[in-house]
Specification:
By secondary structure, the chain is α+β, with helices and mostly antiparallel strands. It has a domain at 336-711: Kinesin (3-Layer(aba) Sandwich). Helices cover 47% and strands 15% of the residues. The chain has helices spanning 28-38, 46-65, 86-90, 158-335, 358-362, 367-374, 421-437, 453-457, 468-482, 544-557, 606-609, 615-644, 657-661, 663-666, 685-699, and strands spanning 339-344, 377-379, 388-396, 402-410, 413-415, 440-447, 488-500, 503-506, 520-525, 528-533, 539-541, 560-561, 569-570, 573-584, 589-599, 671-678, 710-711. A hairpin with a 2-residue loop joins strand 7 and strand 8 (503-506). Helix 2 (46-65) packs antiparallel against helix 4 (158-335) and helix 7 (421-437) crosses helix 9. It is elongated, with a radius of gyration of 73 Å. The two termini are 140 Å apart.
Length: 714
Amino acid sequence: MSRLPRRLQTTHYQSSSPEPIPPPIPSITAVFSKGNDENSENLMPSRTMNKRKLDDQDLDAEALDQPRKLPALGSLNSTRPLAVSRTALNEPTVTTTIVSTSVGPASKPPSRPPSRLTRRDPPRLGATTKPRSTRATSAPPKPSGPPTRPTMSRIPSGPGVLACDMDAERAKSTKLAADDRALSRQLASAKELDLDKRRALVDAADELERMRMKHQREIVDFEVEAAKRAREAREREEELKVVKQDLGTARETIACLKSTVAQQSGVQATLNAQVAALQAENSELRAQLDDLSSAVSKGALEYADAQRKIEQLENEAREAEMVRRKLHNMVQELKGNIRVFCRVRPVLPHDLVPPVVAGLRRLGSSADDQERSAVADLAFPDKEDHREIAVSSTSLNAMGQERKESYSFTFDRVFEPEATQSDVYEEISLLAQSCVDGYNVCIFAYGQTGSGKSFTMEGGSTEATVGMIPRAVDDVFRAAEALRNKGWEYKIEGQFLEIYNETINDLLGKGEFDKKKHEIKHEKQGGTVTTRVTDVNVLPLSTPREVASLLRLANSRRTVAATLMNERSSRSHSVFTLRVSGYNAHTGTRCEGCLNLVDLAGSERLNASGAAGDKDRLRETQNINRSLSALGDVIAALGEKSVEKASEKHVPYRNSKLTYLLQNSLSGNSKTLMILNLSPLAAHLGESLTSLRFATKVNNTTIGTARKQIRGSG
């Protein structure tokens, strides 16, 4: 904080005369202080103030060069003090101490303390000094004492009095001149001192302005700091309020917790009692556990023994099942019958949409009723051997009454809709080994359109859905590789044919159908008959992967079309032939086997297939039904031949390209298996019954015992 300067005390110059001192003139400090109080808010900048001070100094310097007019001689008591200059009124108060000096050799230091700074008064003449007129005076001096009347004794003579007056005037003039010089010197000194004081006053004013500005800045800083402190105080108050609220909440929480702790203490005491009881019970249970552990260990040993016995029995059961199958196959081969498997496909999602259940939905029945009504009533009563299927149907008699009929069919094996591809192939896997051993094997799928023939034979894209053809091919290659250690070397070749509208097409050729005429040749070599087809590509096969690519190529070229029964119906019979030729270098024995895998076209009525309005579809359906009818005629002729035991009975193999191509497989020189595929839908029940009756006829047909095609080294 800046401080205001102390008020200066000016020194009054004492005159040589003992005249009384006039009243003091107001000090510059007082005037400046008053001016500062009145004009504290309107102070001029320090640069302007300095300029005005310098102007006042120039005026004072000019005044020094002018002759001074002295006051009239006489009493000086009425002399008024000098007025304060304009510059002094506008300047700030400064503190200055002046040491007074007296003129003459007999001057002494002042006995008074320094007084306030004022303009110096002119020297006063003593009371004893007689006033006399001088040139510089404007009026004759007045006598200081009371007037005296001259007496006769005091009256000098005329010249003497004049001379005396002249000497006195001279002395007085000399003294006045000396006083004037002394006063001039004192005035010059006072002027110079006054200039120094003015300069000091200007510096003090600048310093005061700086201090005032600093003081204002400090005040602003203090105000900012005070506002900041006030804001912080308010924030502290808010925080204090929040803390008080939190404290109140905490106290309430503590009170609640105390009550909770009190409750929990009681609960803990109860739990401790329960724990003690449980520990006692646990001790008893541990004792029981030890007893049970020993019993379990004993039981585990007994279980391991039982498990080994179960595995042994399961192995024996599997071996017994294999023996049973071999014996059954042997019995069937000895009988010479065509083996028949029946497979019912599962219900697919698209089976429950029009046109299958369109009529049912129009009746307003529920979804469950619609599904039950859409599925045929098929039962599988033989849960042990899986050889029987029962079909129930409902029809109206001539009187319009509902009549329910049931039919039962028995085959070599019946597969329910839940059966997998692996389950089906497990029953026919021995036929692949027979092909490697030198037998002719024929497996053909029969059934109406959409019953799952192509899926059974070819399968899907995943490992679990692979069909009979890829699985049989894999087993043939596996069996051939296993016999390599015994000296057998096998050559495997494949061909893929299609019979479309009684025309044979090579599916492995260049795709130029109907340009080459393929003929079927049955060649006798010794005691065996070999079937050949002219101008077809027979490709050598070394791995099952090559067979898979060959099947994909053939399927892409096979003729399919959409019918009312199936969106992608096979409109032709496909025959995949795998020829296996083996030679044993150790024994010089040769064998030739042939595996025919046939996917027959779907059997369906003309009105059910919707082919009546399409000439191409009509022709296809007629040829398919004609070839399947020829197959039925062949089966019927073979059955009559076996019953009558007449070797001269004619079998019409040439009525169809299909039956003529399969002549070897149907005439007794082959192990033949027919897979009957059935649809589970009630709408197809009529076709399913027809297929079941045909399969029963086939299963009852005896074609003779298959023979190995083995030739010696000679």
